[in-house]
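Sequence of protein-glutamate methylesterase (Pseudomonas khorasanensis).
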Amino acid sequence: MNDTPSLPRIEAVVIGASAGGVEALLTLLGPLRRGYVLPIIIVLHLPEERRSHLAEVFSRRMELPVKEAEDKQDIQGGTVYFATPGYHLSVEQDRSLSLSLEDRVHHSRPSIDYLFESAADVYGPTLAAVLLTGANQDGAHGLAYVKRCGGLTIVQDPEDAQVATMPQAALNIQQPDHVLPIHGIGRLLVELERIAC
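Predicted 3D structure, token representation.
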């Protein structure tokens, strides 16, 4: 991991995960304390036909407020937002969330690429994007786009991931700023918040 002084000032964090993602996210986000200032926006692939219980599950395990994303919802610091199954989640220029029904990307809706690219267009170099465990290619191109826009890119070490396909797909396209095990990513999120304060 780079030394803290070389880390950029970040205004928002986006995270993508698929197979194995619930366990990874609980490990990653559980230690974050109330008062954490950055918003965290997450796409986790889930079956479209099921109602998501992620907000309830994570609310019981975290100090931060956790919400299922709603259309036209303003993004608030210190809040975790989960994408709604069956809808793409994007960030609008006014820093609100948007839900849409465009075609699936990599057979997924919500798509990690869709979130990452829209957030990069809004936050540019003040965005941190994290790609975790998963069994398809979603997120790899979106992460590369974040890097092209000057954002900070972080990939879970494939050897640490429950399913290595997704992080490895990102590494096959472009070298991210950090390749870390899940606990290392958690420490990095804490450091990014310290710089933001």
